[in-house]
Design brief:
43% of the residues lie in helices and 16% in strands. With 409 residues, it is an alpha/beta fold. The strands form 4 sheets. It has a 5-stranded parallel sheet with strand order 5-4-3-10-11, with helices on both faces.
Length: 409
Amino acid sequence: MHAWPASEVPALPGKGRDLKIHDTATQGTITLAPGPVARIYVCGITPYDATHIGHAATSNAFDLVQRVWLDTKRQVHYVQNVTDVDDPLLERAQRDGHDWTELAERETVLFREDMTALRMLPPQHYIGAVEAIPGIVPLVERLRDAGAAYDLDGDVYFSVESDPHFGGVSHLDAEAMRLLSAERGGDPERPGKKNPLDPMLWMAARPGEPSWDGGSLGRGRPGWHIECVAIALDHLGMGFDIQGGGSDLVFPHHEMGASHAQVLTGEFPMAKAYVHAGMVALHGEKMSKSRGNLVFVSALRRSGVDPAAIRLALLSHHYRADWEWTDAVLEDAVARLARWRAAVSRPDGLPADALVEEVRAALSADLDAPAALAAVDRWVELQLAGGGDDESAPGLVSRTVDALLGVAL
């Protein structure tokens, strides 16, 4: 599966700062200092509906991570999956009378278009669950052979008790885990499981549903968590720098994935930092496909909204915050974009070297994009009030906003 084209990232004078980021697992801020190549895995979409603002906000958070690392003169090895076979996708296809493969492809194409318009940097490896199946099957077999997985009526489950570190990502108690498991794709009430929290690794073929050859596992399809583990281990190995996604993935997805990987390899931890973006609400409720309260990026673009304004709307909120999308949020972003473009369109201006360092400092401090925007706002206000005579300043500001915030002025 191919990703989307990359926009050019301008080079800035000097060098950026190492990233300090909030780690869900340690429940504190840690400093990441990768080697020459920084490694990041971000969980991607289940393509049964168009890209909404919640997806875009999560993508924006991890795009900022890449930009901070690139500014430190590192390379970035970024991997993302597409869950192109899963119950929600199959259910939507059946409800609407569509072929599930065509639905997945159509929505993945639209996601790529939205990411391109928003100037999100693409992953080097963009892998669908279906194409990962040949690598998933041996991992499930290894877990089973090691006694970390078991058969239940043809399905294969992972035993969470096989990982001594289980629970170390989310820090939730058993009852909270059970409730979230039931809400987010698990089956804690299924009779016969060794532990209600045990997640499925391989689902035996069901009538009328797609299935693949699973070798000794029989025909079936993979569970959700093992999909990401197989892709991450194949392309990044253990101990990569960031495992990322929305905060709704902390449990069960990232907790289970970490346990799968740690039992498979005998190494700990799977990732140096578990980083999670907040949820976006609409009309007082979390924006989600199941509720149908969605604002689609593609619909905003079709209505004539500049993608740069959408991006500024996302950047105006800290990535870990839960916030609400409103007309006022977008209107403020449109107005800010107009002010910034007016300021950098002047032939000269106020020196901007200090601004570059302010933006760098803000983003290196747990991706504080609102502080970065405020710094640019201060320069813009003075520039529009009279400015200075530095002919290089407008261009430097424009390149800084592009390189570090992903906004083309």
